Amino acid sequence: MREQVGLADLSYRAKFDTKTAPSRPFWPLGRNHFLIVGEPPLSPPSGATDVTSVYAELLLAGPSSTAVLSKLTSLNLSDAALPNLFCAQASLAHAHTIFLREDIGSIPGFRLLISREYAESAWEAIVHAGHEFHLQPFGLGALELLRN
Amino acid sequence: MQLFSKNRMWRQHELRSSYDVVIVGAGVHGLAAAYYLGKKHGVRKVALLDKSYLGAGASGRNTAILRSNYRTPEGIPFYDASLKLYEGLSRELDWNLLFSQCGHLTLAHSDSSVTGLRVRAENNQLLGVNSRIIGREEIGNLVPSLNLSESTRYPILAALYHPPGGIIRHDAVVWGLARACDRMGIEIHAFTEVTSIIVENHRAVQVITNRGRVAAGAVLNATAGWATTISRMAGVPLPIVTHPLQACVTEPLKPFLDTVIVSATLHVYLSQTDKGELVIGAEIDPYQSYSMKSTLPTLEQMATYTLELFPQLHGMRILRQWAGICDMTPDFAPIIGTSQEVSNFYMDVGWGTYGFKAAPISGKCIAELIATGKPPGLIQPFSPARFETGNLVGEKAAAAVSH
Amino acid sequence: MKFRFHDKTIEAQPGDTVAAALYRSGQRIFSRSFKYHRPRGLLCVSGKCPNCLMNVDGIPNVRTCITPVHEGLRVKAQNAYPSLETDFLSVTQRFDWLMPVGWYYKTFTRPAMWHAVEPAIRKVAGLGEILPSGPREYEHAWMHAHTVVIGGGWAGMQAALAAAERGEQVVLIDDQVALGGQACYRKRMGPRPDAIIARIRAAANIRLLQNSYCFGLYEGNLLGVLQRAPHPGASERLIHLRAQQTVVASGAYEAPIVFPNNDLVGVMLSTGVLRLLHLHRVQAGKRAVVVGKSLQAGEVAEELRDGGIEIVAIVDPDTILKATGSSTVNGIQTRTGHFSCDLVVICGPRIPDNGFVAQAGGRIEWSEPQGAFLPTLPPSNVSAVGDASGEAVANTIAPLPTSKRAFVCLCSDVTSADLCDAVAEGFNHIETLKRYTTATMGPCQGRMCQLSAIGVCARETGRSIGETGMTTSRPPNPGVSLGALAGPKHHPLRRTPMHYAHQDLGVVWLDMGDWQRPRYYTDHLAASEEERVLLEYRAVREAAGLIDVSTLGKLDVRGADSGKLLDKVYTHRFSDLPPGRVRYALMCDEGGIILDDGTVSRISEDRYFVTTTSGNLDFVQQWLEWQICATGWDVHITNVTAGYGAMNLAGPKSRDTLRKLTECDLSSGSFPYMACREAKIKGIPAILLRIGFVGETGWEIHCPAESAEGLWRAILGAGHEFGVRPFGVATQRLLRLEKRHVIVGVDTDALTNPYEADMAWAVKLDKKEFIGKTLLAHAAKDRSRERLVGFVLQSPGVPEDGAAVVVDGQPAGRVTSARYSPAQLAAVGLAWVKTSLAQDGVFIDLRVNGELLKAKVTMKPFYDPEGVRLRQ
Fold first, then answer.
1. What is the pLDDT of residues B33-90, one digit of tens each?
2. DSSP β-ladder status, C636-639 and C515-521
3. CB-based burial of residue B136 (10 Å sphere; 0-12 exposed, 13-18 middle, 19+ buried)?
4. pLDDT band at B398; cut points 50, 70, 90
5. At what angle do helices C270-280 and C294-306 cross, to 10 degrees?
6. What is the DSSP letter of C275?
7. Which residues are paired to C726 by β-bridges?
8. CA C570/CA C607 separation, integer angstroms
């Protein structure tokens, strides 16, 4: 992952969808449309809809992650168009996806929120596209190691 | 013998000051109307005006598929009559239209599309059109190259087989009709663009073109994609929206596909010409536009769906793609008849994606209407008045890709 | 390296193309022409002409002159029988007088004759054949750049460097073996600009796409780029390249000159000869005649001499009478004499390759001094540089003698005489001339023939070349394979949360759009669909059944104006729905046509839970969002479809089953029909709707997707003692048909309104305003032509879905759904009939296997017509 690219399933993370700007860190999805994503347990802001089960969350990280994604989406993923901590929505392997750019230190990272029923197909498509970059699946242990 | 003759197909003329009938649009519909006006009714002081070369519009951009296996009791006899006229047209015009009655297969990939096809088959049989549902084995015998595997994403379950359907050389129809019109003294004016129509006392009296103005006893709008533009000049509103439709063609291959293949589920239809090129069409683009520029996503879709049906074609190259524009009505049926606002303004429009198939019969019927003032029974269901009475035609129910 | 050419083994050198290796091995004929089967040899050696098309590894029409050799390739000639050297069909050229231009329009005009002849024509038509080939991987990718430069020649490299120095992100596309354009094979252009190439390679903001070609410039500056062999695992990759600025630096290519026998083997373009010489170290011949204007031809001759080819003569095109030889050229006859040779080198006009500018909407006009069509008014985001802009192009147009052996179009064997004949027949516009003769419409896409065809058309019509104009430039050009366009096969599959539980039960799947739903279950036993459906049916009617309905669209609707919004988009009223209640919801468009249906449940004062049909979810959501945008109402809609697994437990034993898993009071007294509750089942938080699509006591249970499989298994476990079974869509269709419940899109079509569908009860015309009200009010008064009715067949048999209703031998309606009903012991169904027949007890005729069978119309459900069971 540090040298090439890795893929992890982080679907357990809590997600809330709301139309009023929350007082904690959020991802703006549109005018009056915000998404909160975080480690559970996470208390929902008032009026928010719990979408934890709606989205699977995949984390694609590593120097080649942009190259892998550019085989699956028309979204411009360059540093200029989607800098760290910015988000965008587009189709990924024919499934609607929310892209959250969240680098791990200097390693580029993308959190991909994909409607759950498509998640398995999307996972397979990412693994297939990642072949030429020696993509490896990884678990939470490796993520901890990378963070430290 | 005409094989060795080099006679001109049609002559060029100066624009005269007046004609009995001015036909706007010299595509297959305008030409067919002129042809039957001259041939059946002796009306020969007719001018066909076209803003471009002959066949520049949908007449030369369609995928040249002919069939009559429609769904409704209104549509079936109409298109059947058209197909029968096409069958005799090569001989009548002494011009081989290369009509290959190779059969037409509409594939079903789901139970609901089998149901839709059965409705068509039943109605066709009741009205005397040769059409029936066939199973996978018979499909395999007709098209051995088709991927009939059950493990594909959208396996083929059954098909509507329509033996008299097929493909024709679309340009040849234009040229053959044009020659026949010319021989009757009907004038064809290419590159003559209509810029306005003068209406007095609910009659279209003059047509103004970039080459001058002409008086007209009757005006026929046969301009397909530009139908609303011309009608608006006469102050006649039309419930028509315009959508692009795209198609493409591959490099020539040794013929391996002898029937027309249509798949509504996969939004694609294809056939192979006598030259060996595979002609592939898509469904109409989902947005309204007059643009005749082709797009990459549609091309990719056509390729994807073609390979679903014929995976072995993956290495074949697309040679060119193009777009035409389609005038769509709310019920996916044409508008043929006299306008209610302007008494001598006739319309043969709203042809969407099915105009080419209908050219001879609608030309014949509209000619009769213009010459006699009485609409033949076949076109009565398609009168412009139906949008006020609400008696819409149900072809939309069978819409999506219905080539 | 070695490869197979038919049964021969051919040695190749590193860097060889298939054609170069074949040429070196002595092969001279590479193809047979389309119509006359004339032998053809290499011409352009750059993938632009049709002469070297062969079958490579099963794929037909491959340009062998630009296809690199790989160990073990299998190469075969095409369109020649028995061999390239002896082709029986070449006899057709003896009968060319029988096949003047357009001959097929003028012969066999009697249908019977044409039907007899056409199969024979199809037998000899076409070019390549598809042979078995190994699997190929195609990829897609997307890229974005500020500036894209098409062409890695001198001008393209300069443009790329300049943009890079301005700090722009640049993509440089090149389709040649190496950067440098002509400099790679035209030694007299000077040495290869290695310093510039090094700077390009070193620039951090230039991305180089080599071995790639642009095939189309589409709306919005979207370039279609085809990259060959992007990595060892893929054969082609299609790149969607979005640019702000496009620089067309695709140079100019050489086209042939028209004279009798100009298609003989050994007549080659000068660039082709030079490419063979410098890129592949192959001498195209020993003794050459160079045809061209003095300066240009002189330079080429010099270069060939340097390469060891003897120059017999330099001949001005104006003086040529014909080339001589039977299949291979052996000389040139001019006004002054005959020159023997084994190679004729044509210095033809150089055609600026600027079709992309035209595709982008730019204007292309004829420039008389340069003898070329040049971009005069490119769009603001597209520019042309170098030869593509006509910079160093100065063509003298050679004469276009009229001859039946002077080939203009090599792809379809169209001669200059054919073009003249066609113009005489009235095809005097370049677009009709093209369509009538098929010149410019073959695999070379007009590269070799367009200028000459325009030239002949201009001369014959007395117009200038500029007035004659070009034909429309259409992508893709160069062509691109269907495989590359289709890309990798990502068929997204939508799996419900219980997907694998169904698999364990031996499910047979039903595809519904991208979704896979259980059709019925086999328990891994061999049995027919009918038997299994009957088993599942009995379970639901006598015990209980469980079906996965997760594919239902589910929307969470909150906010003060939610009720207002739902009142507006649905025909029923929802603002007055008390919390804890469910109501059927029907949606129509402005025309009163049914769009969708589902349920609306009021979970709490300001929160509704809306279900839609599986296929229409996206549409319904957009429809609702659009209304919110238009009104500014306080409503927040969240699509929670994927967040909930949903299942429907129905049947007399469903209460007993569920009771084992929940403390919620399920008695009809506290949880009646059309009520909803939030409750925990086996500890899992769920929304329960008491509704009855299949006509039995039952609950639709929605729970978080990740718990759905567990709940599914728990319910089946708890119900085991009562005989509860899972059931699929096939069984559900039968159950609902007995209840005469309509499925939108199955029993209705794109023109159906609720009155016709016998659903007047779902429309509340007394509501102030809702979408479709005006026309629905109209439809309510004016009972229309057709109505949906139920029927019971009066004899054995089951009509198929889609069977016709017949009146007086004419089609008068159709069956939308029909099944054998165990409750009625006869086939029952729904059908569209004329309104006059829509009355209880009327008999109608249905066409079943070609026979007319009587059926009795009923306007009531076939099962439990009073709805007692589902309220129990």
1. 999 999 999 999 999 999 999 999 999 999 999 999 999 999 999 999 999 999 999 9
2. unpaired
3. middle
4. low
5. 20
6. H
7. C546
8. 17
Average pLDDT of the segment spanning C276-302: 95
CB contact under 8 A, C642 and A49: no
Fold topology of C553-643: Alpha-Beta Plaits (3.30.70)
Domain C256-348 has CATH 3.40.50.2000: no
Domains of chain C, residue spans? 2-105, 136-252+350-396, 256-348, 400-471, 499-551+644-735, 553-643, 785-872
User: Of the candidates C746, C742, C763, which has an alpha carbon nearest to the alpha carbon of residue C754?
Assistant: C763
User: Positive or negative CA dihedral for C701, C702, C708, C710?
Assistant: negative
d(CA C172, CA C158): 11
CA C220, chain centre distance (Å):
20
Confidence category of residue C25, pLDDT binned at 50, 70, 90: very high
List CB contacts of B293: < 8 A, sequence separation 6 or more: B323, C218, C219, C359
Cβ of residue B115 closer than 8 Å to a chain C Cβ = yes
Q: What is the mean pLDDT of chain A?
A: 93
Q: With an 8 Å Cβ cutoff, are B397 and C751 in contact?
A: yes
Does pLDDT of C693 surpass 50? yes
Q: Closest to A117 (Cβ–Cβ): which among C142, C496, C636? A: C496
Q: Do C136-252+350-396 and C256-348 share a fold? A: yes
pLDDT (tens digit per residue) in C635-652: 999 999 999 999 999 999
Measured in angstroms, the CA of C84 and the nearest CA of chain B are apart by: 17
Tell me the ipTM for this assembly.
Answer: 0.96
Percent of chain C with pLDDT strictly greater than 90: 89
Q: What residues form DSSP beta bridges with B368?
A: none
What's the rounded Cα separation, in Å, for the pair C223 and C220? 9
Residue of C nearest to B122 (CA): C804
Contact indicator for C633, C565 with CB cutoff of 8 Å: yes
Q: Are residues C855 and C842 in contact, defined by beta-carbon separation less than 8 angstroms?
A: no
Residues 6+ apart with CB under 8 A from C26: none
Task: List, as ranges, residues 743-772 from C with C-beta within 8 Å of B.
Answer: 745-746, 749-751
- From the centroid of its chain, how far is CA C709? 37
Q: Is A145 exposed, middle or buried (0-12, 13-18, 19+ CB in 10 A)?
A: exposed
Which among C815, C834, C494 has a CA at the least distance from the CA of A93? Answer: C494
Which tokens belong to C844? 């109608």
Backbone angles phi, psi at C196, to 5 degrees: -65, -40
